[in-house]
């Protein structure tokens, strides 16, 4: 059963919605990760879960009703959970080093490029996933592969 807890803002009574989801909505666990691990894994999630993400976005374009795409959203969530589990199993030390660096450095990638390179190499070697940044100019190295990037 999904429940929402909210700190009482304008009331002295906390809000907790215990309304169960309908039975036709597949059950799924929460991802269970904060913003830093999700940001660290974001490009890999995009690549690994591309088909599920595309289905979800097509569904959202069909209809703005939030209930319309719950099944597709659950598939994206399950895929993300699966990838995070694989990252922890195969590249746990490198993953932890990268997301903890992001957490300590205001989520700025450029502070954590050495940890990112190590993490990206491990993910490529273990899971055959490569970090690809959409919109990178063709023929130029992506920012995460530059040894001495210039920031202005």
From TrEMBL:
Q: Which UniProt keywords apply?
A: Disulfide bond, Electron transport, Membrane, Mitochondrion, Mitochondrion inner membrane, Repeat, Respiratory chain, Transport
Q: How is this protein named in the record?
A: NADH-ubiquinone oxidoreductase
Q: Which GO terms describe its biological process?
A: mitochondrial electron transport, NADH to ubiquinone
Q: Which family does it belong to?
A: Belongs to the complex I NDUFA8 subunit family.
Q: What function does the entry list?
A: Accessory subunit of the mitochondrial membrane respiratory chain NADH dehydrogenase (Complex I), that is believed not to be involved in catalysis. Complex I functions in the transfer of electrons from NADH to the respiratory chain. The immediate electron acceptor for the enzyme is believed to be ubiquinone.
What is the species of this protein?
A: Rhizophagus clarus
Q: Determine the domain of life of the protein's source.
A: Eukaryota
Provide the Gene Ontology terms for cellular component. Answer: mitochondrial inner membrane
Where in the cell is the protein located?
Mitochondrion inner membrane
Q: Which InterPro entries match?
A: NDUFA8
- Gene3D superfamilies recorded: 1.10.287.2900
């Amino acid at each position: 059963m999904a429940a929402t807890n909210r700190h009482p803002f304008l009331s002295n009574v906390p809000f907790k919605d215990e309304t169960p989801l309908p039975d036709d909505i597949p059950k799924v666990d929460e991802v269970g990760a904060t913003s830093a691990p999700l940001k660290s894994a974001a490009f890999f999630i995009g690549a690994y879960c591309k088909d599920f993400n595309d289905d979800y976005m097509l569904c959202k374009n069909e209809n703005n009703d939030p209930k319309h795409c719950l099944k597709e959203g659950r598939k994206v969530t399950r895929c993300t959970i699966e990838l995070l589990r694989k990252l922890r199993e195969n590249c746990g030390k490198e993953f932890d080093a990268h997301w903890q660096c992001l957490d300590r450095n205001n989520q700025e990638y450029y502070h954590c490029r050495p940890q990112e390179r190590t993490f990206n190499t491990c993910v490529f070697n273990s899971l055959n996933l490569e970090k690809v940044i959409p919109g990178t100019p063709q023929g130029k190295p992506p920012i995460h592969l530059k040894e001495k990037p210039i920031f202005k």
